[in-house]
Design goal:
Keywords: Signal. Belongs to the UPF0065 (bug) family. This is Tripartite tricarboxylate transporter substrate binding protein. By secondary structure, the chain is α/β, with parallel strands linked by helices. Helix 2 crosses helix 9 and helix 2 packs antiparallel against helix 10. The protein folds into two domains: 164 residues, D-Maltodextrin-Binding Protein, domain 2 (3-Layer(aba) Sandwich), CATH 3.40.190.150; 97 residues, Periplasmic binding protein-like II (D-Maltodextrin-Binding Protein, domain 2, 3-Layer(aba) Sandwich). The longest helix is centred in the first third of the chain and has 22 residues.
Length: 323
C-alpha cells in the first residue's frame, strides 16, 4: 500500500511539473525555422514576426535558415522536431506541394503535410512577373512575343523545382505556350540576386522581396497572378485580365508547429501570433517590405490551407516529372 501511495504521489508530482511547464511556455528560446536562405519571402515575413514574438514572450526567437531542395529540407527538419512548441516553421505555400512533387518523381517524400499543424497565416500575395528595368520589355505582350521569338533562350530563376517561384512560371508557360529556360536556385533570395545580377531575364516573386528594387528602379513589373490587382501595384495588370484565366497563384506565408504539439501550447502560440499581427512595429515592417498583411488563424487558416493545398497538388500533377 505504501509503495502504491509513493508511486501515486510521484505521478501526481510529475503531472504537476508538466502542467507548470506547460503554463510557463515559453520558458526558453523558441526557434523559428525558415526553409530558405535569407532574403526570400518566408524570411522577409519571419523576421518581423519573430521580433514581435520576442516582445510578447520576452524570450529570444532566433531564425534558423535551413535551405535546400526547394524548402523540403527545412520543412522536414521542422516536421520531425520535438513537438513541444520550441521549434516552429515559417512556411511558404510550396510546403503543401513538395511531398506530391517527390511522389511524381518516384521518390519517397521526406515529410508529409500532416506532420505540421497550421497555426497562423500572415500574408498571402500573388506572385509578380518582373524583368530588369534595363530590359527593352515593357509589357506582358512584349514579354510573350519575345519568349516565343526565342524558344528556350529566355531564362527565369526560382527557389528550386516545384517551388513557389517555379510553379507560377510553369503555369504561365503552359497557358501561353511558352518554352522558357528554368534556372533553379536554393531559395528566393539567391533567385532574386540572379535576376539583379543579370544571370537570368525574369522572375516570378512575391511582392515583398522585389518591392524595394521596383521602388529603386532596378526592376519592372509586368503582370501579377492575382484574381484582382495587387495593392501597391494597381497599374500592373493581372494575367487573368490579360486572357489567361487559369493563371492564379499566391505565395502565402504561415506559421506551423510539429503535429503532436500539446493543444495548450498551440493555443499560446496562436494567441501570441494574433498579438504579433496587431503589433505596430510588425505592421510597419510588413508595409515597408511590400507584403500585404493577411492574418488568419484557427479554422479560417485551416480552410484556406486545405483549399490552396488541393489546388497546388493539381498543378504539380500537371507539371509531372522533371528530369
Amino acid at each position: 500500500m505504501k509503495r502504491r501511495v509513493l508511486i501515486g504521489s510521484a505521478a501526481a508530482a510529475a503531472l504537476a511539473r508538466g502542467a507548470k511547464a506547460q503554463e510557463a511556455f515559453p520558458a526558453r528560446p523558441v526557434t523559428m525555422v525558415v526553409a530558405f536562405p535569407p532574403g526570400g519571402q518566408a524570411d522577409v515575413v519571419a523576421r518581423p514576426v519573430a521580433a514581435a514574438l520576442e516582445r510578447i514572450w520576452r524570450v529570444a526567437v532566433p531564425i534558423v535558415n535551413r535551405g535546400g531542395a526547394a524548402g523540403a529540407i527545412g520543412n522536414a527538419y521542422a516536421a520531425r522536431a520535438t513537438p513541444d512548441g520550441y521549434t516552429l516553421l515559417m512556411a511558404l505555400s510550396s510546403m503543401a506541394l513538395l511531398p506530391e512533387a517527390a511522389r511524381v518523381n518516384g521518390r519517397e517524400p521526406t515529410y508529409a503535410p500532416e506532420m505540421l499543424t497550421p497555426i497562423a497565416l500572415f500574408s498571402a500575395d500573388p506572385t509578380v512577373l518582373v524583368v530588369p528595368a534595363s530590359s527593352p520589355i515593357r509589357t506582358l505582350e512584349q514579354f510573350i512575343a519575345d519568349v516565343k521569338a526565342r524558344p528556350g533562350q529566355v531564362s527565369y530563376s526560382s527557389a528550386g523545382n516545384y517551388s513557389a517561384l517555379h510553379v507560377p512560371m510553369a503555369q504561365l508557360s503552359q497557358a501561353a505556350g511558352l518554352d522558357m529556360l528554368h534556372v533553379p536556385f536554393q531559395g528566393g533570395g539567391p533567385a532574386l540576386t540572379a535576376l539583379l545580377g543579370g544571370q537570368v531575364q525574369c522572375l516570378a516573386s512575391g511582392p515583398g522581396p522585389i518591392a524595394p528594387h521596383i521602388r529603386s528602379g532596378a526592376l519592372r513589373p509586368l503582370a501579377t497572378w492575382g484574381r484582382t490587382r495587387l495593392a501597391g501595384f494597381e497599374d500592373v495588370p493581372t494575367l487573368i485580365e490579360k486572357g489567361f484565366p487559369d493563371c492564379e497563384f499566391y505565395i502565402w506565408v504561415g506559421l506551423f508547429a510539429p503535429t503532436g504539439t500539446p493543444a495548450p501550447v498551440i493555443a499560446r502560440i496562436r494567441d501570441a501570433s494574433r498579438q504579433a499581427a496587431q503589433d505596430a512595429e510588425f505592421r510597419r515592417a510588413m508595409a515597408a517590405s511590400g507584403n500585404t498583411l493577411d492574418h488568419r488563424d484557427g479554422e479560417a487558416f485551416l480552410r484556406f490551407y486545405n483549399e490552396d493545398a488541393a489546388r497546388l497538388v493539381r498543378v504539380v500533377r500537371a507539371l509531372g516529372k522533371i528530369e
